[in-house]
UniProtKB/TrEMBL annotation:
The gene is fabH. It is an enzyme of class 2 (transferase). Its main location: cytoplasm. Homodimer. It is found in: Cytoplasm. This is Beta-ketoacyl-[acyl-carrier-protein] synthase III. Its EC number is 2.3.1.180.
């Protein structure tokens, strides 16, 4: 099977750090409530001069620099986002000039919300396999969100969850075990009306999403590992979308998996939707947790409702 090799990672977080105490000064909430229900202590919001596009470029630039490959070897630029600077042009196409990349490759944004990273990795893999361009065997894949601009100040159940940021990987294909599980079922449990409504805020039925998450994440993990002909013991890290620490704890308990394999950073990053998995992977890389040959299962769930899980190998 042709699988995925992660060559390098990168990330970028905006400069403004907003703690739970900061939120409690502007709405009826508390550090205690947010920490207990979500595990979140702080998140980053964009400040003047920062945006989804600028974060994406910074993050992708870092991954590219660490990869050691030439810019001309990138054959595809994909961005997973629901909150780019413009509905069009895409965030991905913005990277062409900002990073000095080739004009002769596709630049695509995809919207699978918090499953975006897993969707993007599988789409990039499939494209590289189909294209077989030996001169451009790499894809630059980024997840980026600027959710702070979509948060309703009057909706404290939703606005305490989300943050801004970007994460990126440079990836290529590699022969070895591989599987992906991608899917969706139509639902408005998490939605953002966009052009239908000038005041475009994220709306979420938190309880319904919680129930969905604790059901779909174990399904994604079991299904992907089994399709790849592996067992959960063969997976070094389960890199899950950082929505809420309680969801991850629930899955660890229900599946009886070692909690050390589920590194989490939702406490200091919050929920960054399509960016969270790549930001987490980059943090693990920076902490020296990843060794060449390690396998990681990237799994997300979110608006759609969508779900996605892909198996990757680190270097
Ligand atoms: O990446 C997208 C995926 N999204 C998710 O994974 C979200 C999944 N859902 C959740 O994480 C949880 O549903 C939330 C953290 C969003 C909410 O937790 P909950 O336990 O479902 O809270 P709730 O909405 O049922 O509210 C419980 C109580 C209510 O008060 P009463 O009616 O019991 O008196 C709320 O009014 O907590 C109150 N409440 C708050 N209190 C302080 C709601 N939000 C807040 C708040 N601070 N921010």
């Amino acid at each position: 099977m042709t699988g995925v090799k992660i060559i390098s990672t990168g990330s970028a977080l905006p400069s403004r750090v907003v703690t739970n105490d900061d939120l409690s000064k502007i709405e009826e909430t508390s550090d205690e409530w947010i920490k207990k229900r979500t595990g979140i202590e702080k998140r980053h919001f964009t400040a003047e001069g920062e945006s989804a596009n600028s974060l994406a470029v910074e993050s992708a630039g870092r991954a590219l620099e660490k990869s050691g490959i030439s810019k001309d070897e990138i054959g595809l630029v994909l961005t997973a986002t629901l909150s780019g600077d413009y509905s069009t042009p895409s965030v991905a196409s913005f990277m062409q000039s900002a990073l000095g990349l080739s004009k002769d490759i596709p630049y695509i944004d995809i919207n699978a919300a918090c499953s975006g990273a897993a969707y993007a990795v599988e789409i990039a893999r499939s494209y590289l396999v189909a294209n077989q361009d030996k001169k451009k065997p790499y894809a630059l894949v980024t997840g980026v969100e600027e959710l702070s601009k979509l948060l309703d100040p009057a909706d404290r159940t939703t606005n305490i969850l989300f943050g801004d940021g970007a994460g990126s990987v440079v990836m290529t294909t590699k022969e070895g075990p591989y599987a992906s599980t991608l899917g969706a079922e139509s639902s408005l449990a998490i939605n953002c009306p966009g052009a239908k409504n000038l005041r475009s805020y994220i709306r979420m039925d938190g309880k319904e999403v919680f129930r969905f998450a604790v059901k779909i994440l174990p399904y994604c993990i079991k299904e992907t590992v089994s399709k790849a002909g592996l067992s959960t013991d063969d997976i070094d890290y389960f890199v899950c979308h950082q929505a809420n620490k309680r969801i991850i704890d629930h899955v660890v308990r229900a599946m009886k998996l070692p909690k050390e394999k589920f590194y989490c950073n939702v406490d200091h990053i919050g929920n960054t939707s399509g960016a969270s998995i790549f930001i987490l992977l980059d943090e693990m890389e920076q902490k020296g947790m990843l060794s060449p040959g390690d396998t990681a299962l990237l799994s997300g769930f979110g608006s759609g409702l969508t779900w996605g899980s892909v198996l990757v190998t680190y270097k």
